[in-house]
UniProtKB/TrEMBL annotation:
It comes from the Bacteria. GO terms for biological process: RNA methylation. This is NOL1/NOP2/sun family protein. GO terms for molecular function: RNA binding; RNA methyltransferase activity. Residues 8-297 form the SAM-dependent MTase RsmB/NOP-type domain. The active site is at 226 (nucleophile). Its EC number is 2.1.1.-. It holds the Pfam family Methyltranf_PUA.
Length: 463
C-alpha cells in the first residue's frame, strides 16, 4: 500500500475532484501493466508470447511479459516497455529519411521505436546525459539492429552548438517528478514534494530552451513526461507556445483509455492544450504519461542538393585500403547483406582498427560520441573479425550461414561464453541462432567446435 503524501492527495483532489482522485489513488496500488513491441526490422518475428491483447494504436505491440534471457529479447526481436511509454515515439509519426533527435534517450525504448520507423534511412541522434545509462542505450540500439544512429553522451547545450536548426523531429522525454511511476517504482514517492515538482519544471524549461534551437523551421517537437503534474505538463506546453510561438498539433488519437490535457489546469485562454494527451493508470492502458506534439513556426527549407554533394566529396583519410577491403570482403561475402550495406566498400571507414559505416559524416567536435553508425568489426593481423552489432543488423534479412543451437542448455552455455561442439557442415564465421532468432557471431573450426563470439560484456551468469 503506497503511503502517498498528504500534499499530493490534496493537490489531485482539487484538480480532479474527490471521486476521480480516489480512482487515481486506488490504481496506484494495483499491478503494473507490462507489454512488448515486436521489431519489424528483423526478418524473423514469430515470437513465443501471446498476441491476444494488442496495445491500442501501437503497431506490433501487445500486452505480456518478456524475460531478459529469452532469445526474442537477446536477439532484439522484442522490447519490453510500458504501454503508455510507447505513445511519444508513435505520435512523432517519423518518416524514413528524416533527421531525428531523442534528447533524453536512455534506456532506449522510445529510441528503438524512432529508429525502427526510420527504416535505416536518415539520421537518428540518440543522446543521454548520464554516463552510466548511456551504456544501456547503446546495448539496446545495437540489439535492435539500428544502423543509422549517432549515440552521444552530452547535455542539450553541447548538442545545440553542433546541430543548430538541424532536426526535423525532436523527442524530449523530460526528467520529471515521476508521479506516473509511483506504482512501478514506489521509491519515487519518497522524494516527491511540491518543491521538487517546481525544480523539475525549471530543469525542463532549461532543456527545452536549448532543444528548440536544434529544430528546423517547421520542425516537430514531441514533449513527454511520466508525471501528472500540470506544472510539468500543460504549463510547460503553454510556456513553449508563448515563448517560441509554437503551435500544438492535434494527435488524432481517441480512445476510452486515453484522456486529453486540460486547459483549465493552466490557462483557459489556450484551449489548444486540450489537444495534448494524458494517460492515467486508472484507465488501464499502462502507467502515467503526458504527451504533446508541437510545431515550430516557419517552413522547412528543402535540402540543398549541391551542398549535400559537396559534403559527400569531403576528403576522409580513414577509408579502407585495398588489402583491408579484401579482408572484410572475405568474411562479408558469406552473408546476405541488407540493401543499405551493399555499398559498404565505398562507405566504410577505419579508426583504431574498428571498421564502421558512419551515420553522421560531419564534424562532431565538442561532443562525446559513444557510437556512430554500424560497426562491421575489427581488423586484426591480415584478417577481419565481424562485430556483434553487425550480427544484429544481418538478422534483418534471411541468412544461410547460420548454426542453430539445439537446446536450451546449449543456448544458456553460449550466453555464458562457452564453446560448443556442433553438427554442421559450415566452417568459419557463422551467425548463431536459437529458435531461429539470430543473436551472435560464432566461428566453427575444422573439428566442429563453435568458438564463442558473444561479447563478454553481455554474457550471463551460468544458469
Amino acid at each position: 500500500m503506497l503511503n502517498l503524501p498528504d500534499t499530493f492527495i490534496e493537490k489531485y483532489q482539487k484538480l480532479l475532484g474527490k471521486e476521480k482522485a480516489a480512482a487515481l489513488f486506488e490504481s496506484m496500488n494495483q499491478e503494473t501493466k507490462k507489454a512488448y513491441r515486436i521489431n519489424s526490422l528483423k526478418a524473423h518475428q514469430k515470437v513465443s508470447y501471446s498476441n491476444a491483447q494488442a496495445v491500442p494504436f501501437i503497431p506490433n505491440a501487445y500486452y505480456g511479459e518478456v524475460k531478459g534471457e529469452d532469445p526474442e529479447w537477446v536477439s532484439g526481436t522484442v522490447y519490453s516497455q510500458d504501454p503508455a511509454a510507447m505513445f511519444p515515439a508513435y505520435l512523432a509519426q517519423i518518416e524514413p529519411g528524416q533527421k531525428v533527435l531523442d534528447l533524453c534517450a536512455a534506456p532506449g525504448g522510445k529510441t528503438t521505436a524512432l529508429g525502427e520507423a526510420l527504416q535505416n534511412a536518415g539520421l537518428l541522434v540518440a543522446n543521454e546525459i548520464s554516463s552510466v545509462r548511456v551504456k544501456a542505450l547503446r546495448e539496446n540500439l545495437e540489439r535492435w539492429g539500428i544502423s543509422n544512429a549517432l549515440i552521444t553522451n552530452d547535455d542539450s547545450f553541447a548538442l545545440a552548438k553542433v546541430f543548430p536548426e538541424f532536426f526535423d523531429v525532436i523527442l524530449v522525454d523530460a526528467p520529471c517528478s515521476g508521479e506516473g511511476m509511483f506504482r512501478k517504482n514506489p521509491d519515487a514517492v519518497s522524494y516527491w514534494s511540491p518543491d521538487y515538482v517546481l525544480t523539475c519544471r525549471k530543469r525542463q524549461q532549461e532543456i527545452l530552451t536549448e532543444a528548440v534551437k536544434k529544430l528546423r523551421p517547421g520542425g516537430k517537437l514531441v514533449y513527454s513526461t511520466c508525471t501528472f503534474s500540470p506544472e510539468e505538463d500543460e504549463e510547460i506546453v503553454a510556456w513553449l507556445v508563448k515563448t517560441f510561438q509554437m503551435t500544438i498539433e492535434p494527435t488524432q488519437v481517441e480512445s476510452k483509455k486515453i484522456s486529453h490535457g486540460q486547459a483549465r489546469f493552466v490557462d483557459d485562454n489556450l484551449p489548444e492544450l486540450d489537444r495534448t494527451l494524458r494517460l492515467w493508470p486508472q484507465d488501464d492502458l499502462g502507467e502515467g504519461q503526458f504527451v504533446a506534439v508541437l510545431r515550430m513556426p516557419g517552413e522547412s527549407s528543402p535540402i540543398d542538393s549541391k551542398k549535400e554533394k559537396k559534403k559527400k566529396k569531403k576528403k576522409r583519410s580513414a577509408l579502407l585500403n585495398k588489402d583491408e577491403r579484401d579482408w572484410v570482403e572475405k568474411v562479408l561475402s558469406n552473408f546476405n547483406l541488407p540493401d543499405f550495406l551493399t555499398d559498404w566498400p565505398s562507405k566504410a571507414l577505419v579508426s583504431h582498427d574498428h571498421v564502421f559505416i558512419p551515420a553522421y559524416k560531419q564534424s562532431t567536435k565538442g561532443l562525446k560520441v559513444i557510437n556512430n553508425g554500424v560497426e562491421l568489426g575489427l581488423l586484426k593481423k591480415k584478417r577481419f573479425e565481424p562485430g556483434h552489432q553487425l550480427a544484429e543488423v544481418l538478422a534483418q534479412v534471411d541468412q544461410t550461414q547460420v548454426v542453430e543451437l539445439q537446446s536450451n542448455e546449449e543456448y544458456r552455455k553460449y550466453l555464458h561464453g562457452e564453446t560448443l561442439r556442433v553438427k554442421s557442415e559450415l566452417r568459419g564465421f557463422v551467425l548463431v541462432a536459437y529458435h531461429d532468432f539470430i543473436f551472435s557471431f560464432g566461428k566453427i573450426t575444422g573439428n566442429g567446435v563453435l568458438k564463442n563470439f558473444y561479447p563478454k560484456g553481455l554474457r550471463t551468469m551460468k544458469g
